[in-house]
């Protein structure tokens, strides 16, 4: 087929355009959710608090991917690699240099930003499915690289590293789990607000222009190369923060925790949550944390199949993920109010 | 020198398998513009079917033919039931669908046949080929079957009506519909053929990697790599890519110090990324021109 004819096949876009307003929850709803997140841990068991912490952490990682894909329209199946770099940065700093856990988080944000920016450079020439494949390669390579002999001194090789869980500071009467939850919540809220503002800013509009039409964006004077690598960097940086928090919460890092399975989970979280809808990241995170457990309790041997069937149901019934449900809910609420 | 020839020949033999997988990937990619992440699991399931048939006393070649037919029908069924409704959905939704299919097949195979490693017979035997120490008869058989398959596909697409119709449906669906080609069924046919080709790859590699539900993980990644290296729009390129990746993988494992078996995969993938950065459409792929 000739080049001109191939343009016809190029018709379907990778990501649908999302109106700017539809990217977040309203202020009222946000405050209610925040209040619930602040209050619930006081009434539940430590294990549930731990799970809520993990939900926020995975939510952050999905949010990072959402900025990359929903924002700038680039795919990534390699987020687990950035997550791993963040986790190892925190672990190594805490264990070998006795750095305070809270200080390791900005460090891993910076390191992962650089890492993502550098990876984004060669990736500039790739788009769509080729980029998915290149990042997929990165994710497959990461566990092997962490096991390399000359890094073993720092990474602990196959055995990995044990991370100490921090106590609540200033003698606050709180369990370690609870303190870590509030700490994670604070980081999450900060990054969430940052992300919302980023996507609403000039840079965010540049991302979206590139997503919708790269050539048109460049002819409008958007520096495509810069903003694409920037999106990669920001996404990697946030994923790195999630990785750091994850390492502290789980108290352990090992190469095999950061395989391609993790990258695929994060990707699924984004699809289930709704691409380009930031609050959906946390719904998606809940899906990837709780549904496999649920599937296991339905049928032990068939948990993968149950998970797959549920996933199919989601993409058939709500192809735009939880965003679609939220919009439906809003319309319903509007109707009820009018009656 | 002998080590070198040995490694190259072994590379060509595994390359034949990657070529088959790459061919299957490219066939579906041509038909629907998506990479099938479940291709390897589909091949694995087919291989289990043939193994089960042989356990029931069916001879190798009878099992081979029945499995091909089963895979062909199963491929069409998967397209009709699961992916036809997604034809107009965004790319990301389709990728999620492939991952869901992956999980379903992998876990069902594990439930039916469990996760223990099983021996799988080779029809060619494993003695040295023609008395030479360089290559075994199974490896020679793998190369032979791949070449025969390629020729068959070439004649099918070049000289049969239905092959022509499939090519037309893949390249210009609108015009193909206008001349009376049922493009929707051509896509299903593409799925059926790709699944059958994948099952051949599975049955050929099973004696080497042994039979178990996760056997195709690595093979599929190499298959993708081969397809991308050769260019996703070129079946011929996919095959060449397969052989190249096979040979490169083996040579890198032997000659680059510190690579060994563990780092073979990352090295092969690094090669792919380097090629893509220099030639984004792959070695034989066409560069796509975009219009605003």
From TrEMBL, chain A:
Q: Which keywords are on file for this protein?
A: Cell membrane, Membrane, Transmembrane, Transmembrane helix
- Give membrane topology per the record: Multi-pass membrane protein
Q: What is the lineage of its organism?
A: Bacteria, Pseudomonadati, Pseudomonadota, Alphaproteobacteria, Hyphomicrobiales
Pfam families (alphabetical): BPD_transp_2 (PF02653)
Where is this chain's protein located in or outside the cell? Answer: Cell membrane
Q: Could you tell me which PANTHER family the record lists for this protein?
A: HIGH-AFFINITY BRANCHED-CHAIN AMINO ACID TRANSPORT SYSTEM PERMEASE, HIGH-AFFINITY BRANCHED-CHAIN AMINO ACID TRANSPORT SYSTEM PERMEASE PROTEIN LIVM
Please identify the protein, giving its name as recorded: Branched-chain amino acid ABC transporter permease
Q: Which GO terms describe its cellular component?
A: plasma membrane
Q: Which residues form a coiled coil?
A: none
An annotated Gene Ontology molecular function: branched-chain amino acid transmembrane transporter activity
Matching entries from InterPro entries are given as: ABC_transp_permease, LivM-like
**Membrane-spanning residues where?**
22-42, 48-68, 103-120, 127-146, 179-199, 230-254, 260-290, 302-319
Q: What is its main location?
A: membrane
- Native species: Bradyrhizobium betae
Automatic annotation (TrEMBL), chain B:
How does this chain sit within the bilayer?
Answer: Multi-pass membrane protein
**One Pfam match:** BPD_transp_2
The stretch of residues making up the signal peptide is none
GO BP term, example: amino acid transport
Q: Which UniProt keywords apply?
A: Amino-acid transport, Cell membrane, Membrane, Transmembrane, Transmembrane helix, Transport
Matching InterPro entries: ABC_transp_permease (IPR001851), BCAA_transport_permease (IPR052157)
Q: Where are the transmembrane segments?
A: 12-32, 60-83, 95-115, 135-157, 185-209, 265-285
List the coiled-coil residues.
none
Question: Is the Membrane keyword given for this protein?
Answer: yes
Q: Name one GO cellular component term.
A: plasma membrane
Please state where this protein is localized.
Cell membrane
Write down the superkingdom of origin.
Bacteria
A GO molecular function assigned to this protein is:
transmembrane transporter activity
Q: Which family does it belong to?
A: Belongs to the binding-protein-dependent transport system permease family. LivHM subfamily.
* Name of the protein this chain belongs to: Branched-chain amino acid ABC transporter permease
Lineage here is: Bacteria, Pseudomonadati, Pseudomonadota, Alphaproteobacteria, Hyphomicrobiales
